[in-house]
Amino acid sequence: MTANVGMIDKWLRIVVGVALIALAIFGVIGWWGYIGIIPLATGLFNFCPVYRLIGMDTCEKPDRPSP
User: What is the pTM of this model?
Assistant: First the structure.
């Protein structure tokens, strides 16, 4: 798995995932809040399979060294 989730994208996914799971645990939203596991996992692993399918990549690529 090659990383395809950038830093900002990663932290947004983690925050949204944790928030959804916490809301579900405390009963603020229904059981569907556990869907937050998906953005949490993709943020922690720096890999999103949907990004791979559509050819998207939010990682910053290192600049090529000049000769």
Answer: 0.83
